[in-house]
Every structure is written in structure tokens, then in C-alpha cells.
User: Fold this.
Amino acid sequence: MSNMAIKVTRKDQSEANENIIRRFNRKVLQSGVMPLAKSQLRFTKPISKRERRVKAILREQRKAEKTEKIKLGLR
Assistant:
């Protein structure tokens, strides 16, 4: 996929702005630019196995604390 800009020109002087916007949106959807842009926004750097493990342990501890508080009626 190239970085080519999507251009929509007015067909004639009497064409409504809504029609131009509609044609532009259709071209954007058909080109597949949006899913690519969204996937690039969601990209995260890969983390090491050790970091993943530490985060998982912390997550489990927090979850256990939360359920314990709920059982005691503190929350």
C-alpha cells in the first residue's frame, strides 16, 4: 500500500458539500487506509518474558486483594 493521498474533486459547482464528503468517506473505506492507521496506533513494543511474568503476578495480586476486600465488605 502506498502513501498516496485520497483526493475528491467537485463534479460541478452546484454539487453539495455533503455529497463530496460522502464520496471521500467511501473512497477512504474502499482504500483500506483506516484499518492500517488504527493498527499502527495500537502497536506496542514487544516486552520481555520476565516483564510479562512480573505484570501478570502483580495483576493476580491486585485481583486477589480486591476479591478479599469484597468478601470482607470493605468495598
Notes: The radius of gyration is 25 Å.
